[in-house]
Write a structure and sequence with these properties.
21% helix; 10 strands; three-stranded antiparallel sheet; 3 helices; alpha+beta; 145 residues; five-stranded antiparallel sheet
Length: 145
Amino acid sequence: MGTTTILREVTPLSPENCFIYISRIKSEFTYPIHFHPEFELNFIENGKGVKRIVGDSMEEIDDVELVLITGENLEHVWINGNCTNDTIQEITIQFHGDLFANVLLKNQFRTIREMFEKAAHGLAFPVETARKIKPLLVGLGSAED
């Protein structure tokens, strides 16, 4: 019986940055199962059949997905699985877990705080939500330039 090595990713996020934004078109997922202390929002389009593994959960995704991971050091990976598309769009945003620490303590942000708590084990948003947020994510990348 083999064992799987889980990589500790050192993200390019510096203490001076609020977040990093990475957008790419890919034909396959090659990054190994990994973990990092930073929070991560991951958007995938054209990925029907890709297999997502977050912690002890494994699912085949639809064409579009949006996942938030706030669990410090929660293992995660996306692998091609049954996906045959060679133009998979992936947008990854990584940010420090304490970025919103003070504001999340306020009453008006209770629901967002609860969402972050649920995402400690990984939180997949409905496909409709992923589709609606895509223009905002793409726009965020344009603002980075």
